[in-house]
């Protein structure tokens, strides 16, 4: 097989194939990118294994990947913010810029959002890719393109902590120590949280969270949410003011509500079942706010500054590295739950 623009394509549920496709040309306001690194997200694996996430169904072959960085290789007409050779982090969602959500600064809620590797929009797990120039962020010299790719999950942490109001002195509970739970640990600490406790069923992930700055770790040993909420208070010494739920597991969401201090806030980040039972009266009478988040909005510049300044170190998140040619092995590794973040190198050496 020739390799001009080797690309990882989800042909159908359960079938990832590598194909050489034409190199895309940038249109007005776009840049062509020589892709450098793409991290594998749980959503990529879910589309591979299940063919859908909620209403987003893979109905035609789709290029995977959205946690990405690249080097500008060609400019489209009218692009002035970048030049050929710039290394960039790619914010994967491009909104319409015209609707009321966009105009009010909440473009993540744009109904016409074009988001990489969300059907029917193609992703960027390829040698070359084209993207809107204004959603590409130039990396400073002291940042690697691996770190650039990790700005995507880090931005989820930035948005979650913003929605929860994490600030100096906050006492925070994070449920779930996967990649998103870990970036919330990093962000909460960077925002000045005084205490961060994190829960998970996997001790090795809790150990990773501890090494990345968590004050306390708590292994989940019971599906009784009230029992786990009490254990959280016992470990922290107080009830958390803010809980960021990253697992999507029903008992964990219930624990998040019971554990949170009256007048506090629960941020729902992890997505599980579409319909679940919640202790809604408990939340209501104690004025515990429940907030959702959808991806992130205006968070890439903050995430970039956090890493560039040295305030946050995302490098330990990467536990496995693969070449683009070994994409299937990379996906299998992620599916097996091995390590934390699997990174694919896209450029030919």
From TrEMBL:
Keywords from the named record: Metal-binding, NAD, Oxidoreductase, Zinc
Entries under CDD domains matching the protein: sorbitol_DH
The keyword Oxidoreductase belongs to this UniProt entry's keyword annotation: yes
Keyword hit for Membrane: no
Known cofactor(s): Zn(2+)
Gene Ontology MF terms in the entry: L-iditol 2-dehydrogenase (NAD+) activity; zinc ion binding
Record protein name field: Sorbitol dehydrogenase
Organism of origin: Mytilus coruscus (Sea mussel)
């Amino acid at each position: 097989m020739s390799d001009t623009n080797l690309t990882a394509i989800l042909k159908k549920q359960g079938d990832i194939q590598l194909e050489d496709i034409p190199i895309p040309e940038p249109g007005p306001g776009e840049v062509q990118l020589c892709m450098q690194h793409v991290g594998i997200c749980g959503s990529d694996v879910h589309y591979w294994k299940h063919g859908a996430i909620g209403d987003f169904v893979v109905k035609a072959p789709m290029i995977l990947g959205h946690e990405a960085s690249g080097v500008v290789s060609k400019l489209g007409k009218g692009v002035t913010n970048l030049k050929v050779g710039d290394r960039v982090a790619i914010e994967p969602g491009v909104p319409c810029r015209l609707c009321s959500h966009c105009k009010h600064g909440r473009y993540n809620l744009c109904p016409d959002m074009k988001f990489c590797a969300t059907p029917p929009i193609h992703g960027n797990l390829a040698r070359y890719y084209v993207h809107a120039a204004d959603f590409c962020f130039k990396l400073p010299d002291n940042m690697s393109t691996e770190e650039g790719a990790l700005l995507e999950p880090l931005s989820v942490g930035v948005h979650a902590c913003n929605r929860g109001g994490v600030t100096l002195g906050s006492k925070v509970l994070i449920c779930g120590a996967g990649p998103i739970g870990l970036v919330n640990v990093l962000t909460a600490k960077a925002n000045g949280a005084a205490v961060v406790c994190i829960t998970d069923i996997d001790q090795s992930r809790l150990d990773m969270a501890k090494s990345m700055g968590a004050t306390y770790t708590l292994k989940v040993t019971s599906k009784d949410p009230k029992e786990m909420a009490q254990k959280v208070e016992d470990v922290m010494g107080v009830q958390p003011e803010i809980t960021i739920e990253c697992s999507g597991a029903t008992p964990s969401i219930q624990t998040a509500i019971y554990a949170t201090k009256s007048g506090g806030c629960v941020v729902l980040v992890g997505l599980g079942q579409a319909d679940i039972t919640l202790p809604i009266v408990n939340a209501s009478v104690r004025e515990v706010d429940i907030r959702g988040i959808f991806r992130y909005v205006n968070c890439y510049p903050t995430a970039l500054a956090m890493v560039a300044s040295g305030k946050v170190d995302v490098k330990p998140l990467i536990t496995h590295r693969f070449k683009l040619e070994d994409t299937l092995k990379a996906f299998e590794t992620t599916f097996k739950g091995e390590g934390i973040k699997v990174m694919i190198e896209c450029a030919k050496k």
